[in-house]
């Protein structure tokens, strides 16, 4: 079956990159994430699925402390990256977000040139010693995002002038430019047409050679196509987590089965 092609490529590793233990998230009195325990593997695409409002995005945002920016939000429990507590007061969230990059639902390039969109992160994190090195990072990142050939002759043009699919690949290039170890993607294809979606899905699979990718998606077809592992969330609980093929063909929990067969959500 063609749809399963990407996800059936072999897993590269069983190494744990991120581990969450007893994670709770509250927005004021709203208990949005309830006692979630999960281990996210390195060099693997993990899909978060579940009905609207089940907490997928909230949990994703815990993994690079994006929830810190929401005043009513409180996170409890332990989340580690390579065994280190990411909520430790010693951890600088800006440095953390360079290691755990993020791509959002709506492409959000800076109102700057294509070049500067990519160069921004490497500049603030001091990843290039001179202009030649920065040029190299920009080219490499755009190539990794499969965008170089389309934009190489107009690097000084504004990023917001690109098509939606190109803008999203620009945002992926921007995220990979700081050499992250984990890439979080919150419904990255929801604003894209089927051709751009297919390009981004192909890209996600290529990126997994270098790091761990976590994707929130409403599309079960997409989860089945791109991920090797799937986590099903329901009402703030992580109901089931395992190999994507097993979750979609032989789920253990009746709530997972109801969702994948279209009875809830
Ligand atoms: N910024 C916020 N402030 C207050 N409550 C929030 C905020 N973001 C999410 N919530 C609440 O947290 C719960 C989980 O929402 P979340 O957006 O994480 O779910 P989701 O599964 O990603 O949903 P969707 O698929 O619709 O994007 C919901 O009850 C939601 O109303």
TrEMBL record:
Keyword Transcription regulation on entry: no
Membrane spanning stretches: none
Organism: Acidimangrovimonas pyrenivorans
Classification via InterPro entries: AAA+_ATPase, ABC_transporter-like_ATP-bd, ABC_transporter-like_CS, P-loop_NTPase, PstB-like
SMART domains associated with the record: AAA (SM00382)
Gene3D superfamilies: P-loop containing nucleotide triphosphate hydrolases (3.40.50.300)
Keyword Nucleotide-binding: yes
GO molecular-function terms, A-Z: ATP binding
Protein name from the UniProt record: Phosphate ABC transporter ATP-binding protein PstB
Record key words, sorted: ATP-binding, Nucleotide-binding, Phosphate transport, Transport
SUPFAM superfamilies named in the record: P-loop containing nucleoside triphosphate hydrolases
Pfam families per record: ABC_tran (PF00005)
Every ABC transporter domain range: 11-260
Taxonomy, superkingdom: Bacteria
């Amino acid at each position: 079956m063609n749809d399963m092609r990407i996800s059936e490529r072999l897993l590269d590793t069983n190494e744990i990159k991120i581990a969450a233990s007893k994670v709770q998230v509250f927005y004021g009195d709203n208990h949005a994430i309830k006692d979630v325990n999960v281990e996210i593997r390195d060099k693997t695409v993990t899909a978060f699925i579940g009905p609207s409002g089940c907490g997928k995005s909230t949990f994703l945002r815990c993994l690079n402390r994006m929830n810190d920016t929401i005043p009513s939000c409180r996170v409890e429990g332990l989340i580690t990256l390579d065994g280190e507590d990411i909520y430790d007061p010693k951890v600088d969230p800006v440095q953390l977000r360079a290691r755990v990059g993020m791509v959002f639902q709506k492409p959000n390039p800076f109102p700057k040139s294509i070049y500067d969109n990519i160069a921004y992160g490497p500049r603030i994190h001091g990843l290039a010693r001179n202009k030649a090195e920065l040029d190299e990072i920009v080219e490499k990142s755009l190539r990794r995002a499969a965008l170089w050939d389309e934009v190489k002759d107009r690097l000084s043009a504004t990023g917001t002038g690109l098509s939606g699919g190109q803008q999203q690949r620009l945002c992926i290039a921007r995220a990979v430019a700081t050499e992250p170890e984990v890439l979080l993607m919150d419904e990255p294809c929801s604003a894209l047409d089927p051709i751009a979606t297919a390009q981004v899905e192909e890209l996600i699979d290529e990126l997994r050679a270098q790091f761990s990718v976590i994707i929130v998606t409403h599309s079960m077809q997409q989860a089945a196509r791109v991920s090797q592992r799937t986590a099903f969330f329901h009402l703030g609980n992580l109901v089931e987590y395992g190999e994507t093929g097993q979750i979609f063909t032989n789920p253990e929990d009746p709530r997972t089965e109801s969702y994948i067969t279209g009875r809830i959500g």
